[in-house]
Write a structure and sequence with these properties.
The complex is a heterodimer of chains A (113) and B (111). Chain A is mostly beta strands. Chain A is 0% helix and 53% strand. Classes of the chains: A mainly beta (113), B mainly beta (111).
């Protein structure tokens, strides 16, 4: 059974640009969450999608947005990139929105220069 | 605001030692507590705890939850160099089962 797949694995962008990251959950999983991980702040929750609807949202500016498709794949978009957006972006998939394990992908390392 | 605090932040031990990692939380409407191990990139799932006092065990790792005192511990016995990693504690809470992470404990096991 394939795990959570995130693409691309690495990305370098310049300030002001926008970026789209992709996450394909484990087959059968319908919930996808996104996290930003930096050395100083640890893992911070961005948002969670279930059945194509955003169910939870963290404390990030509106430049961070996401969506989920009918096949449960999710994308995250960051517009007007800032240097501080450089981080490892992780997504996790769960079978459903509830008390169930969440499994992580390998992440996308975004560097903003 | 939901909060998860892990201690210690870092720990250095020798192979064969036993370690205990701590996780305390303040979360509205607690649902479950999860432990992860992060070596390079993807955190890998270790345990999910929902009930107090019931130990979960996997090989040399074990964990227990105390819902009255709002904490959990992760024990690793007979540590090996391969146990070196960041151990993350996360708590699901609220009506939408939002997952809140602690900052992690960096464990270094020296040969």
């Amino acid at each position: 059974k394939a795990g959570v797949t995130q693409t691309p694995r690495y990305l370098i962008k310049t300030r002001g640009q926008q970026v789209t990251l992709s996450c394909s959950p484990i087959s059968g999983h319908r919930s996808v969450s996104w996290y930003q991980q930096t050395p100083g702040q640890g893992l911070q929750f961005l948002f969670e999608y279930f059945s194509e609807t955003q169910r939870n949202k963290g404390n990030f500016p509106g430049r961070f947005s996401g969506r989920q498709f009918s096949n449960s794949r999710s994308e995250m978009n960051v517009s007007t990139l800032e240097l501080g957006d450089s981080a490892l972006y992780l997504c996790a998939s769960s079978f459903y929105l509830g008390n169930t394990e969440a499994f992580f992908g390998q992440g996308t390392r975004l560097t903003v220069v | 605001e939901d909060k998860v605090v892990q201690s210690p932040l870092s720990l250095v031990v020798h192979e064969g030692d036993t370690v205990t990692l701590n996780c305390s939380y303040e979360v509205t409407n607690f649902r479950s507590l999860l432990w992860y191990k992060q070596e390079k990139k993807a955190p890998t799932f270790l345990f999910m705890l929902t009930s107090s006092g019931i130990e979960k065990k996997s090989g040399r790792l074990s964990s227990i939850l105390d819902k009255k005192e709002l904490f959990s511990i992760l024990n690793i016995t007979a540590t090996q160099t391969g146990d070196s990693a960041v151990y993350l504690c996360a708590v699901k809470g609220g009506s939408n089962y939002k997952l809140t992470f602690g900052k992690g404990t960096l464990l270094t096991v020296n040969p």
